[in-house]
């Protein structure tokens, strides 16, 4: 029996092993949109109830925490798969020093300022100005991340070479043992204007989130069509190899997030399950052999993501999600085991 306050879930699940209840007290599964805070009471008063969140998962979903735990991979510079990120409230001196070092070496110094815990590109700014970045501390708490100056681009017939990002839905079944799955369908978002490193306030050139802006064109391409077009544009880079690298990135991220006990890591609460959306881009790097490679770059991890498109175009989406998370059954589900 499922109790949920999410209309998408109520409308989408028709699996014979799940039924809904209007009484929270009767539920075996609580799938809640709002944050659960009192896990201790839940564990003592309702020890059989399965949840849709993990204690301390904000280590992934809040941007400054994401940057902090990611540094457990790759040392002081952090992992290759996360743009170098600083907390503007607590790491301003370190950021200024790093900015100045790059300036002296003649390296690119485009940066993007983002609020810790807002989505949809709200209050987000791209700039090369150190004073402007410092002034961002006066508004909402923010991180500053290295702006990806050399992204892998996608050719749109109607526009040209544009930025794009990719959203994967991942399912965390348990922390110990660490069991992680990715939904087999991924989603794409595209900029509406050709990419160049100028006009930094041109939203439709530098950002890809168009589905919440009124009067703005929204380009939609199904992932199967995208793979065909992508491999035509980049014949030396088969998508399977790229996706393998993306999944390797997800493994390293979740291993880092679960490597320490709570509150320094995601808590091993045996009744918890969770669904996250990971937004990422690809950028050009050079490997040790001098070959150009596509390096995944994680942008953010989203709590309780908007699954409207998933439900619209893939009617079994939530059946697959619930079967994987709550029945531990993946056969005939559109998921791939990552860990």
From TrEMBL:
GO cellular component: cytoplasm
Membrane-spanning segments: none
Domain of life: Eukaryota
Name of this chain's protein: Tubulin--tyrosine ligase-like protein 12
Source organism of the structure: Aquarana catesbeiana (American bullfrog)
């Amino acid at each position: 029996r499922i109790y949920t306050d999410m209309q998408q879930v109520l409308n989408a699940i028709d699996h014979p092993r799940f039924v809904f209840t209007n009484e929270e007290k009767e539920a075996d599964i609580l799938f809640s949109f709002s944050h659960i805070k009192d896990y201790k009471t839940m564990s003592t008063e309702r020890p059989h109830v399965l949840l849709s969140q993990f204690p301390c998962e904000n280590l992934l979903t809040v941007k400054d925490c994401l940057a902090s735990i990611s540094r457990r991979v790759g040392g002081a510079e952090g992992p290759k798969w996360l743009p170098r990120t600083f907390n503007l409230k607590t790491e301003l001196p370190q950021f200024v020093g790093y900015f100045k070092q790059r300036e002296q070496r003649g390296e690119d110094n485009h940066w993007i300022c983002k609020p810790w815990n807002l989505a949809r590109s709200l209050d987000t700014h791209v700039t090369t100005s150190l004073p402007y970045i410092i002034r961002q501390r006066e508004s909402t708490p923010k991180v500053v991340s290295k702006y990806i100056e050399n992204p892998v681009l996608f050719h749109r017939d109607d526009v040209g070479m544009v930025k794009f990002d990719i959203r994967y839905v991942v399912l965390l079944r348990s922390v110990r043992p660490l069991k992680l799955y990715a939904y087999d369908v991924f989603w794409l978002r595209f900029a509406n204007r050709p990419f160049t490193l100028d006009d930094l306030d041109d939203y439709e050139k530098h950002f890809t989130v168009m589905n919440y802006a009124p009067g703005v064109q929204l380009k939609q391409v199904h992932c199967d069509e995208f793979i065909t077009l992508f491999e035509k544009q980049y014949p030396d880079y088969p998508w399977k190899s790229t996706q393998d690298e993306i999944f390797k990135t997800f493994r390293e991220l979740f291993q880092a997030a679960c490597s320490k006990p709570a509150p320094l890591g995601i808590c091993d609460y045996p009744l918890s399950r969770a669904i996250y959306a990971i937004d990422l881009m690809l950028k050009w790097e050079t490997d040790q052999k001098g070959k150009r490679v596509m390096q995944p770059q994680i942008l953010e991890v989203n709590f309780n993501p908007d699954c409207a498109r998933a439900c619209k175009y893939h009617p079994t989406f939530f059946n697959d999600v619930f079967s994987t998370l709550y029945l531990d059954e993946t056969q005939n589900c559109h998921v791939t085991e990552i860990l």
